[in-house]
Design a protein that fits this description.
The protein has 216 residues and is mostly helical. The protein has one domain (41-215): Rhomboid-like (Rhomboid-like fold). 73% of the residues lie in helices and 0% in strands. α4 runs parallel beside α6 (140-157). The radius of gyration is 23 Å and the shape is globular. The N and C termini lie far apart (53 Å).
Amino acid sequence: MSELDPKIRAKLRQLERELQSQSTTAPPVVDRQIGDRFAIPLYFLAIAWGQQVIDQVVFAGRWNLPIIPRRMIGVPGVILSIFSHVDFAHLIANSIPFVIFSWLILIQSYRDYWITLLVGWLGGGFLCWLLGPSPVHGLSGVVYTLFGYLLWIGWQERRVIPLAISIFVLVNYGGFLWGVLPQDPRVAWWGHLIGFMLGVGTAYLLGKHQQNSAAK
């Protein structure tokens, strides 16, 4: 046994050096995962801001990608319209809540974020194409989907963190509710309403699924 001790000690020292080198050269996996999650909405905004810069610099604001209701030429807008805005003011107004609401959902669930985002993006886009009275573009419909999800999910799941986030959103962003009503003729309030209803419905269904899974 004494002959093996030096070999064992040498192996342990080698393993210790390898662990130390890995800890100094590679960030923790958890940190990378959090960073990757929080970068998702920034990727979407990078496309939207790139489109807006090109639109303003090259096309003088004439390169729009709207949803045109019930016309085949408007179908691509179901996918592309969220990246198109009237001007930088319009884009800024959507960018800030989009990032905040996205991060608040990503804190809770990566899966729920993607489901809610896709429902608002593609589902909302399709409903605007099918039911909308006029062409529309911008991120605001998706913003309202995220907003609706955040408002409802806490009351649906009745867990501490989601409920605290729902209350935070209601207190600080409750004014968004006025956006689902017809006020300014330049604002597509019906797109906001569609997005909001989709967000609430998504939160209800996902919350029910969470409750049913916990009960099993």
